[in-house]
Amino acid sequence: MGQVIFVVWRECFEALLVVGIIYSWINRNPDRSNGMRYLFGGIGLGVLISVILALIINGVFKELSDDHQTLFMMAMSAVASILIVQMVYWMNRHAKSMKSTLEQEMAQQVARNSWWGALFIIAIAIAREGSEIVVFLSGQIMQLNSHNYTGFFIAVLIGIIVSALTFYVFILTSRFIQWKKFFTITGVILLFLSISLLLKAVEDGTNMLLEHDVSIPDFLINPAWDTSHVIDDSGLFGSFASSLFAYRSQPMWISVITFGLFWLIMALLFLRKKTK
Where are the transmembrane segments (predicted)? Predict the structure, then answer.
């Protein structure tokens, strides 16, 4: 539940930033009454695209056999992990110019008397955030049934409400608070979420190979340590730490190696960016 809330909160907050920038620009436009209709139309279209993607993922998953379902979930976890890294990297590079870029694109479309073009800019921006939510939470979406629909949608609703409150605070305090630190901190948490998803894919793949009697060196599948007496990842707090921060009380060595390689690559990627 914590993973769902955080992902929805962060992605919806970014979507609200985009909507807020475009809303402010349209509000200053002489044809704002017409522009507002296309703004809300673009938001609706973006949300619809995200919902359709969620239904497609869920539908495909239900049609697969057990082994293929496992492979599909592994692939979605890996894709989600890569997308999170790409998103954090992109935000670090383009957050400062996002406002001017959006306003320039909107101005170009309106200059061509094309509010429809503006609508698609809005729809793409919203669909990108919504699609990222769907992909990031694909594991939960694919496992939804009549017993856990309620909890999942409550978590989504909480994430949306918290993102709206965060956006309101952002508007009130943007002149006084260094929100760059906010994006840095949440970006680091998203990277932890990324490695959590990657570890799930690696561990599911390892277990699948073992179930099919594929030989794997004992060193890779033996526990590296045991901290279950301190924090058990089957408990409430441990489960939260596991889903959001990749905590394992008894990690296999293959998980430890994956974790280390991931953070080495992230250090090289983001430190390289800073030296440019």
Answer: 6-26, 38-59, 71-92, 113-137, 149-170, 182-202, 252-271
